Amino acid sequence: MKRLINRILQLSLILIFFITSFGLALAQSSPVTEPQGLPATTELWNGLYLKLRLSEKWWWYQENHYRRRSSIDNRSDFVGRMGQVYNRFGMTYLFTDNFEVTFGPTLVWNYTPEPGNPEFETSVLEPRIWHQWLLTQGVGRVKVLHQFRFEHRFKRLNNVGDDYDFTNRYRYKITAYVPLNKPKMENKTFFIAPSNEIFFETGKTKLNIFEENRLYTAIGYTYNNLMFFGGHMWTYGPTSTLGIYRNRHIIRLNIMYTFDFRGNRKPLTRDFQF
Predict the structure, then answer these.
(1) What is the reported pTM?
(2) Is residue 271 part of a domain?
(3) What are phi and psi of 29, to 5 degrees?
(4) Exposure check for the chain: N or C terminus, fewer CB within 10 A?
């Protein structure tokens, strides 16, 4: 099994390298446009994470997010407009204590960029199918998580009458859990968790295969079955206009609840994964 996990990690890194190389080649073949950055915007993401251990190998996984963003005329107010209502569900199969696979549906409601403008629908549903590989690695007292997530998206703009497009999104995130008051991640642990996630997306209408990069630093605390964590996330990526890039400053506030129906719970670092 350890050899299989190493092979999966190698294949995943090769896949990311291939997608990156393809994106660079595609960008070089596109019309040359001097990159321009838009003024930064702000957002507030509130999330609830739920992990239920149903048996020795199976988990139920769930995320529910309420996201707001800055208003049109005030880019630093964080909460001026609705952004998204985001619901992710999945079943997780635990191959080993260091490797698991999750799959399931996601339902996202994207809200209008201009409230009150009749040219935009108030909200639009974006359904997705997703699956991911999660590998846990110990580096001294630090736990490192490698998350490979794949999303198959049916998306459209909020413009009235806009059609749906099908795209595939590929995500890789590396997270380090650093306990501050304990020798390892366990109950009543204060921790810091820096992470970086890169996104690529392919589809008929995609001009740039690179979609976004998210740099996030969270601080948190574990208490029994709960984990409280939050922090600042900075994102950078292209818009639908060639050569125009956006960046966002996002405050994230989250709670995770885990429960073991087996009755003999054995805490694992993955219980606190987000």
Answers:
(1) 0.86
(2) no
(3) -85, -10
(4) N
Q: Would you say residue 268 lies in a domain?
A: no
Token pair listed for 180: 């501050």
Domain hosting 100: range is 2-263
Report DSSP state, residue 74: B
194 lies in some domain:
yes
- Rounded mean pLDDT of 82-92? 98
The SS3 assignment for 75 reads: coil
Question: Count of domains in the chain?
Answer: 1
Q: Which tens digit of pLDDT belongs to each residue from 165-175?
A: 999 999 999 99
In a domain, 272, yes or no: no
pLDDT confidence tier of residue 24, bands split at 50, 70 and 90: very low
d(CA 221, CA 227): 6
**Residues 103-161: tens digit of each pLDDT:** 999 999 999 999 999 999 999 999 999 999 999 999 999 999 999 999 999 999 999 99
CATH number for the domain spanning 154: value is 2.40.128
> What's the longest Cα–Cα distance across the chain?
61
Q: Residue 111 in contact with residue 82, Cβ under 8 Å?
A: yes
Vertex 128 angle, CA 126 and 130, to 5°? 155
CA distance 90 to 55: 15
Give, in order, the Cα–Cα distances in Å from 68 to each of 12, 62, 106, 223: 33, 20, 19, 28
Cα distance between residue 64 and residue 254, in whole Å: 10
Q: For residue 228, what are the β-bridge partners?
A: 221, 255
